[in-house]
């Protein structure tokens, strides 16, 4: 078979062995994978991560160790990636400073000695990949997707190896058998993952791991009895002993002190060449601990001993870079501050924003900053000229020619911030009690809106009430309670704000993400606790149903005259309240019992991100914040059982009646009775007071 | 002189007098002016505003009363506007609802009766403009620049006037004299402002006001002795008695009950026609209080008795509409909430923002919302892909291809919000201690930056420190103190923020707006007070000079890992602090004396917009806010006298030495001595403690 051109060394030679330095090749996906691991798993851990390098059956000037995303797999024998494996360690530093400043010489020595100690305990070696060790020093600048790195393949420079040519396998009778054996083993089957394999005169080529048990290879290594074994490896740099040997053979050579080798070259079976040699250390009994001089840092493109940098930003799509960058800011919170923060829950929360004014714009921005990407924004207005300076998603041009619709403009602007976000704008007016509609067209339109609105509420997990009137909050409050959705409400005064969550029960009508319910039962004395499902809504404190509040407003009352900070703070806190809450499910709220010891220093129970209040009332004039919690009111016009039951029965008809004023919320909620009895009581009380006053006088 | 074509009534007639309704014309500038007055002066006042209408010497079908911006002038005799004046009242309602709902019939009657009562007291009339009265009902929707309005010229419909032709002045001998007299009076001189004038057989034409004193006109009006006077007026609708008389003559007619008139028509002297008539009420002794039926509402374009709407938005430039709209939101604060708020001071404050990250973007937006239009933004960075979701002025596209420079991009985006704003972006790196520069080019660059930065600080009134490191705040803190500028500082933690103002002295180096110093000296017990100029700066609490803090930061420390709400709240409060402070000049700050009675309910002294703290430390995890005030530290590394004196002497050299570390801030500030003595004391204290511990044991 003429095509196998096996050339053999003509003369038997011996001499000092030279080694050709290893080279490295880092596939981009190696750094991509590492970026993920660093951000999500390793975080601040600097202790080093085991990686696997691969030497491919390729034609190269010298042996090249490649690392790729699969290098982080813990098993060498991952058959999906062809090539011989070798063992490595990624030593990543957390700061550029420590990457630069670390003592490179000392690092090389300690890494090498640790490895050689492992090597001497041959019983720990199950795969010949364990016989080669490299390490990779790095600093990952994840903000810029730049990876500073330096490969090292440590080897002691003080040891001088000698070699003798071994012509045994080149003898004509052995040569053909040998050649067929190699072709079968290396080229016809899948390349073995092990870098070293054994040729035994009786058994032919085998993986080192197969031989360990069969032939007591350790004993053979340790003794001079090596006649039967050839330690075989692929060396792209050449096959004859005059050509420097691949660096990676130094490792097992040191372990064995005297070893018979079969050095194979040729990326294909056509190019196959091999030669046998015996390598040995002339001096005996080397103690690696006494070795001082180690080499092995890789040189850069210019042949200098310097680290290199891989910059991935150019090769990544801007979209995926943006996604990584946005997530990085959030994931870094988990490195040190809140390791158990569940970013996934936040990211997957679908938010419905009712209102795209100052509050709506700011809430949408804050949600985006927290990594929420699924939002629907509802508003019926158009951008007016006074809006852009206060409503942070609009520009002057949006307000020209009568103004663009707010809902769609806001969603467009949000996509300009994060093109990957799923934002929908819906131009729709929320039906309101006290704003009657005409029969016919008017009612038909309301039915259409109700169909859309109930659909939206069911499709989303969290509903934000960010409109500018009390009555526009009624319907979504009621529907939120009915469908068991978390409702976050924000309302503004001139220099004060209210941010609150509505209590909700997930049972029954909920279609969204079912949130776990907090079960922590103990909490400090001095506090009262209200479970998440028993908390009140925006209307629970009111004994008057919402009506048309815009009707008699003067201009300064209409225009939401408010200090700019108020909306900024309210919307920021509204989003934090949601983010904090969904880390814990439908968490309870607490309030300090008014008559408890004022000197009691016990703190309100808190969650992962701090306390999770029911409502926050802030004032920027006094810079005071009031945290309150109130229970659901049994006769609430929006969330009481009687209202929800009535809606369950009559659906749209009920709402249309309420809007048109043909039915009264006070009556349905049973507020009428309560109020009349209240006034009765008050009358009694007043007359009693009056009587007692009289008696005082007399 | 053939050109004066005076036609006279051929036959003497008499009969019932008909009146042609008045019409109105509102120039757009009337509403523009009123919008200003309403916003800035009238605000919520609904009591009515006197206005002046004008009847022009024009060819019209019927008499037209025009109102324009000059209608708000209080004097009739404003010669700059040609035309006959008449008296009016603008009755503006604060809500659309009250405009719609008011009883129009009753309003007409009460307005008319009030007017006629004035009319009967002829002594109050100094100008014949007082003899005509109209009123204008309106609702000004200043958000949309829409003005709903309805003119009325009240007149009693129950009274039936009769007339007799008066041919006296048409007699050939009188006619030519009369004609010349009118031509001179009306057409050759400037048209008189009075709508009625008097023709006296001896004196010729005179203004009514001139006659009042000369001829005891009142007595003549009241008696039948009217032979000598002709009551003259311009009536575009015609001159002969068969043609309906202009409505406006009904008013003086009612007052006089019997009156000789000269009715003149013709917009130019060529068209001049006139005729005399006597108007009288057949019934005697009318009491206006008994009159029930009044007419006078103007009809709309379609002839219906309905209000009309003037929409100015179309005719205004979008720029000026935007300016009005932005200011409206602010000016409405003065209507009810804070009438003495000085918006002008806010508007004129020039702000220098150092840093255009999350804080910079939000501060700029909040300033814009408060009406600040002059800003300069300094940043040396470029927009990165993680920025847009948190830094509210940038978009995804700004981060592509390596990112646009932040400073110029931010200013561009701000102009897209308000094109009238004067925003400048300066890409510049603030020199920092611990970040040395190379000799030569490096130092030359620093000198250039220092020249620019000191220029910017001198040109602005308020300096915001919004950068992301401690050391970048040193130089502007020092320069702010040196030039006596208000410095507002905001810094972020993961869930906490610090917002503070630096104390400053306006004396000496200040080049900007000199702010008044608060002089209120009394304040509640339980508080300590620190004057504005004695307050500390960001570095006053530190005993270590700033150095390179970025050097050893891990990624999560570098990236300002912070909950989104933190920056939103800090920047909002930073702007409110400035706005609140500049209402009062360099106001003092207060802090509660720690050992004061905890049950003392006294509140911290506040200003127009609430308390004006020195520093605000907020935490969004606990939702607590701490208000603190601290005094300037005599050995502060940034604002102490020794540092400022040193800068005064050595200027740039001092700063370059500090940056390069060849000189130590601790030494210049005298901190070194303090610290060594502190440690000495501590050593002593520790040993003393140890001793006392021992004695306890024994």
TrEMBL record, chains A, B:
Keywords (A to Z) from UniProt: Autophagy, Cytoplasm, Protein transport, Transport, Ubl conjugation pathway
Active site: 559 (glycyl thioester intermediate)
Location within or outside the cell: Cytoplasm; Preautophagosomal structure
Swiss-Prot/TrEMBL GO biological process terms: autophagosome assembly; autophagy of mitochondrion; cellular response to nitrogen starvation; piecemeal microautophagy of the nucleus; protein modification by small protein conjugation; protein transport
Pfam families per UniProt: ATG7_N, ThiF
Ranges of residues in domain Ubiquitin-like modifier-activating enzyme Atg7 N-terminal: 17-316
Main localisation: cytoplasm
Subunit structure: Homodimer.
Boundaries of every THIF-type NAD/FAD binding fold domain copy: 332-587
Family: Belongs to the ATG7 family.
InterPro entries cross-referenced by the UniProt entry: Atg7, Atg7_N, Atg7_N_1, Atg7_N_2, ThiF/MoeB/HesA, ThiF_NAD_FAD-bd, Ubiquitin-activating_enz
SUPFAM superfamilies assigned: Activating enzymes of the ubiquitin-like proteins (SSF69572)
Molecular function GO labels: Atg12 activating enzyme activity; Atg8 activating enzyme activity
Coiled-coil segments: none
Reported function: E1-like activating enzyme involved in the 2 ubiquitin-like systems required for autophagy.
Example of a GO cellular component annotation carried by this entry: phagophore assembly site
Name of the molecule in the record: Ubiquitin-like modifier-activating enzyme ATG7
């Amino acid at each position: 078979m003429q095509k196998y051109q096996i050339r053999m060394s003509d003369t038997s030679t011996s001499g000092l062995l030279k080694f050709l330095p290893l080279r490295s090749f880092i596939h981009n996906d190696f750094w991509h994978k590492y970026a993920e691991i660093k951000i999500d798993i390793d975080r601040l851990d600097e202790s080093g991560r085991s990686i696997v390098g691969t030497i491919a059956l390729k034609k190269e000037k010298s042996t090249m160790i490649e690392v790729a995303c699969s290098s982080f797999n813990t098993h060498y024998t991952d058959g999906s990636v062809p090539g011989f494996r070798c063992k490595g360690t990624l030593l990543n530093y957390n700061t550029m400073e420590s990457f630069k400043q670390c003592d490179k010489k000392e690092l090389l020595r300690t890494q090498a000695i640790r490895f050689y100690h492992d090597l001497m305990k041959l019983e720990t070696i199950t795969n010949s990949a364990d016989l080669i060790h490299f390490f990779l020093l790095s600093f990952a600048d994840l903000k810029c997707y730049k990876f500073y790195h330096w490969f090292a393949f440590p080897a002691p420079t003080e040891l001088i190896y000698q070699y003798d040519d071994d012509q045994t396998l080149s003898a004509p009778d052995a040569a053909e058998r040998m050649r067929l054996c190699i072709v079968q083993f290396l080229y016809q089957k899948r390349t073995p993952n092990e870098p070293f394999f054994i040729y035994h005169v009786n058994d032919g080529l085998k993986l080192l791991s197969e031989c360990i048990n069969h032939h007591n290879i350790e004993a053979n290594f340790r003794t001079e009895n090596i006649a039967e074994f050839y330690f075989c490896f692929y060396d792209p740099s050449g096959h004859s002993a005059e050509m420097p040997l691949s660096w990676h053979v130094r490792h097992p050579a040191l372990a064995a002190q005297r070893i018979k080798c079969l050095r194979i070259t040729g990326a294909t079976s056509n190019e196959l060449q091999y030669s046998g040699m015996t390598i040995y250390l002339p001096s005996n009994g080397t103690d690696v601990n006494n070795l001082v001089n180690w080499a092995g840092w890789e040189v850069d493109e210019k042949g200098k001993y310097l680290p290199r940098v891989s910059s991935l930003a150019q090769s990544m799509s801007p979209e995926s870079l943006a996604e990584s960058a946005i997530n990085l800011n959030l994931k870094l919170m988990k490195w040190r501050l809140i390791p158990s923060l569940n970013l996934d829950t936040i990211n997957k929360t679908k938010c419905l924003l009712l209102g795209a004014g100052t509050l709506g714009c700011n809430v949408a921005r804050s949600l985006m900053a927290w990594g929420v990407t699924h939002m629907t924004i509802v508003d019926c207005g158009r951008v007016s000229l006074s809006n852009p300076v206060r409503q942070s998603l609009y520009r002057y041009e949006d307000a020209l020619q009568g103004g663009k619709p707010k809902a769609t403009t806001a969603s467009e602007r949000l996509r300009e911030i994060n093109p990957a976000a799923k934002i929908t704008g819906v131009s729709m007016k929320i039906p309101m009690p006290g704003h009657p509609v005409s029969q016919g067209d008017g009612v038909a339109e309301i039915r259409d809106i109700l169909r859309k609105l109930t659909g939206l509420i069911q499709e989303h997990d969290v509903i934000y009430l960010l409109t500018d009137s009390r009555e526009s909050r009624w319907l979504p409050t009621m529907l939120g309670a009915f469908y068991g959705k978390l409702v976050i409400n924000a309302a503004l005064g001139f220099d004060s704000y209210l941010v609150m969550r509505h209590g909700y029960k997930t049972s029954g009508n909920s279609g969204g993400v079912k949130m776990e319910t907090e079960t922590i039962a103990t909490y400090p004395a001095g506090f009262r606790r209200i479970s998440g499902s028993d908390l009140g809504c925006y209307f629970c404190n009111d004994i008057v149903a919402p009506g048309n509040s815009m009707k008699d407003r003067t201009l300064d009352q209409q225009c939401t005259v408010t200090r700019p900070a108020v909306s900024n703070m309210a919307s920021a806190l509204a989003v934090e309240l949601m983010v904090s809450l969904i880390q814990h499910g439908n968490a309870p709220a607490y309030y300090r019992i008014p008559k408890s010891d004022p000197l009691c220093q016990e703190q309100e129970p808190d969650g992962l991100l701090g306390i999770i209040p029911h409502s926050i009332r802030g004032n920027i004039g006094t810079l005071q914040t009031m945290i309150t919690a109130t229970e659901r009111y049994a006769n609430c016009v929006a969330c009481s059982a009687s209202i929800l039951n009535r809606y369950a029965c009559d659906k749209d008809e009920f709402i249309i009646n309420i809007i048109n004023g043909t039915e009264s919320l006070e009556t349905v909620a049973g507020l009428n009775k309560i109020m009349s009895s209240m006034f009765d009581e008050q009358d009694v009380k007043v007359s009693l007071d009056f009587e007692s006053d009289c008696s005082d006088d007399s």
